[in-house]
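Morning!

This is the sequence you dropped in the shared folder:
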Amino acid sequence: MKIDYLLKNVAPWLTGDGPKADIVLSSRIRLARNLRDYNFPRRMTRENRRKIFTLVTSGIEHTDSLRDALVVELEGLTDLDRQFLMERHLISRELSPEQQGAVIIGKREVVSLMVNEEDHLRMQVIRSGLSLSVCWEEIDRLDTQLEKHLDYQFSPTLGYLTACPSNVGTGMRASVMIHLPALVLHKQIGKIIQAVGKLGLAVRGINGEGSPASGNIFQISNQSTLGKSEEEILNDLEKIIRKIIIHESNGRRLLLEGQLLRVEDRIYRALGSLKNARLITSEETLDLLSALRMGVDLGVLNKISRSTVNQIFIQSQPAHLQKLAGSALTPEKRDALRASLIQEKLSSGNKPE
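The structure's back. Tokens below.
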């Protein structure tokens, strides 16, 4: 099975039906693990990287969620295919074909596992809405099943040993992708980011570390994994996210009460541009989709589904468009195809009367 089938697949985290899904797009948990008696990937021989790959692919046969998964080795992928997988949040920029990197993708993309990235294993579960507890249950079950067949590097005093010292301990990174247009419009987002940073959390853009917060979408995650249990890390993160949700909800209420006409104008201008543009860039698309999603979530637009908007966020990215076209495209042709795709999605993704 090739990765092209993912083009037609709608991952559950894009459905927009999870808890607090009007503000929280998705929740994700990653666990970093390494195997005993092997160096970390960047210091391993080619032969040993192949051994790690063989051990991991044998281990997943004993799991519930990855037994019949799609296994993709990066050495056989084009740059376009790699970018496509990054856009779907299935691999990171650090997963390298030179290190014999691979990704194992479970059914519907809920569960995935990177092999030979910074660590031997980077397993991931991603779900719609504020679903950290559900993600934790799923990834903990996967981790337990794998650990019965893989000998992890573990210290009784430090916990799980990882290539990056900041991941030592639980090896867990939990993150929430959150849409905060009202806080941006009220010019409160800077204070929120500053406060979150002081609490030991990281704030990044939609595509993770190093990416801008386009479309008013932010990823908020824990930075420390040592000294706390997984449950404590998740509880602390969720408490902070729930406070941010309250601030965003209050901001949206104030917009409806005091600036309804301006808000509606912003939303309908965005809808008009998306429905009529002949050329549209990635950056412009994200900003317009942010206004469109706010319109859906506020009830201003009641014929467009949240799921449709979420899907456009992912499917309008450059690699997705070129995979859809079946070939590399110039920037102008990508912008033209993006405009056409968006109009098709908005037309077919309407809610029934």
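Headline: The first helix runs from residue 46 to 59.

More detail when I'm at my desk.
O.
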